Amino acid sequence: MLELYERIHVTGMLMGCPRTHCDADWAVVHACKHPCHQEAVGYTGNLDKQHPNYLVLERGSNLYLNMIDPPVPLFPSELFSAAMEFADKHWTAGRNVLFHCNQGRSRAPSLALLFAATRRGFIASESYEKARAEFERGYGHYAPGRGIETFLLENWSKI
Length: 159
Known about the structure:
This protein is α/β, with parallel strands linked by helices. It has one domain: Protein tyrosine phosphatase superfamily (Protein-Tyrosine Phosphatase, Chain A), CATH 3.90.190.10. The protein has helices spanning about 35-40, 75-90, 105-120, 130-140, 145-155, and strands spanning about 1-5, 10, 25-30, 55-60, 60-65, 95-100. The chain has a six-stranded mixed sheet with strand order 1-2-6-3-5-4, sandwiched between helices. A hairpin with a 2-residue loop joins β1 (about 1-5) and β2. α2 crosses α3 (about 105-120). The two termini are about 25 Å apart. The model has no long low-confidence stretch (mean pLDDT about 95).
């Protein structure tokens, strides 16, 4: 786990899902369908799109996103807005915010980058390119998938 900015952390799942490792001072954004969203909502395979928690489940200080890392931008913007609102609420309340995904290289750091730039002002927010350049100085492991990078390039000013 790496603290990138004040109370903004990123990790992968080397030691399992971090929901079991955090206390009341932490809020966790689980940016992975498998296993976190599936286990939290209680399904295997795919979830019916009509399910009330198809995209997002907020449970206490945990936000579970039905988020994969495809090579094309298939992300509903609701995933990003839910993550930003959740992180903002908990960061403002004084908690550490941990963004995690399976490998800690694409989805979680992309959400942390977006949050640090657009909600906290820790890095440039004018464009994804500028924010990414600053972000990579502190997080050399950042390797966004083609789909998430395309989504951020095309939607930066909207999210």
